[in-house]
């Protein structure tokens, strides 16, 4: 359990330093989230950071809830 929280912390830390890298590690290279994050980072560093943190925190919590209901 602690390993998952450590990975999430590292993804968020990488999303602050280099936003597309954090999103790439979580979603992969050919995902829509990565492409949007890359575009926002090229257009402006701060919008890329905001989007990357949003995607890693908000979208991940929704997937965790869906996984729980799929198992139940």
From TrEMBL:
Q: Which domain of life is it from?
A: Eukaryota
Q: Could you tell me the keywords of this UniProt record?
A: Membrane, Transmembrane, Transmembrane helix
- In the UniProt record, does the keyword Phosphoprotein occur? no
Q: Extract the coiled-coil ranges from the record.
A: none
Extract the InterPro entries matched here.
Answer: PMP3
Principal subcellular localization: membrane
Q: Which protein family is named in the record?
A: Belongs to the UPF0057 (PMP3) family.
From the Swiss-Prot or TrEMBL record, give the protein name. Hydrophobic protein OSR8
